[in-house]
Design goal:
Elements lengths: L4 E9 L5 E8 L11 E4 L2 E4 L3 E9 L6 E10 L6 H4 E9 L6 E4 L22 E8 L6 E6 L6 E3 L4 E4 L4 E8 L10 E6 L6 E5 L1
Antiparallel strand pairs: 1-5, 2-4, 2-6, 3-5, 6-7, 8-9, 9-13, 10-12, 10-14, 11-13, 14-15
Length: 203
């Protein structure tokens, strides 16, 4: 997930004077072996008296694992009072891979090769068939199609598309035979940032 998942936190200044606050996310201990994938934006904020602001913590996992860390907000030149000078709490998140499910076509040439089967057509007549994908996962997933040239097959949709969680997307393939024989072609698909989802579809 290139852009990561964003959570917003509200920081409130209940004092009669404004303040500057330094923001940091870090590992719980310097030598901690747990994965770390958090960022905070901005790194510093100025908050007027009796006002508030929002900060963002961005989670960018690189592998499937449990991630942990600490968020800390420290008031510059603040009173030596731990209740008002420092805000600190634990962060925890789960890293998952983006994943997509092939909803159509339903037919398979073998266990790993989907088959998009077009009807018999007259020469120079066209037929369009759908390829339907679903994102069943909790994070956005991007599909990329490798559309090598073939005189009889044409991919009518964009070669890359990002599906939000729990959504479907349809892509269209056109078949226009230019001579009276059986034509075949291969359409390759891959889910970006998931090395386990890379397969070829028979047309």
């Amino acid at each position: 997930m290139p852009e990561g998942v964003v959570e917003k936190f509200k920081i409130i200044n209940t004092n009669k004077v404004g303040c500057s606050v330094n923001l940091e996310v870090r590992k719980r201990t310097p030598n901690q072996m747990e994965q770390f994938g958090f960022e905070v934006e901005p790194k510093q904020v100025k908050i007027a008296a009796h006002s508030h602001t929002y900060v963002k913590v961005i989670f960018k996992p690189t592998i499937m694992a449990t991630y942990a860390g600490v968020f800390e907000a420290l008031v510059e030149q603040g009173e030596q009072n731990m209740k008002t000078q420092r805000l600190s709490f634990d962060l925890r998140a789960e890293g998952v891979l983006p994943t997509l499910k092939l909803e159509m076509p339903k037919e398979y040439l073998d266990e790993r090769t989907p088959l998009l089967k077009f009807p018999r057509l007259r020469v120079n007549k066209s037929s369009v068939m759908p390829v339907v994908l679903k994102n069943d996962g909790p994070v956005p997933a991007t599909v990329k199609f490798d559309t090598t040239y073939h005189s009889c097959f044409k991919f009518l949709s964009g070669v890359s598309y990002t599906l939000a969680p729990k959504t479907y997307q349809q892509f269209q393939v056109q078949f226009t035979p230019n001579d009276p024989k059986v034509h075949t072609h291969t359409l390759a698909l891959q889910t970006l940032l998931n090395p386990y989802e890379n397969f070829k579809m028979q047309l």
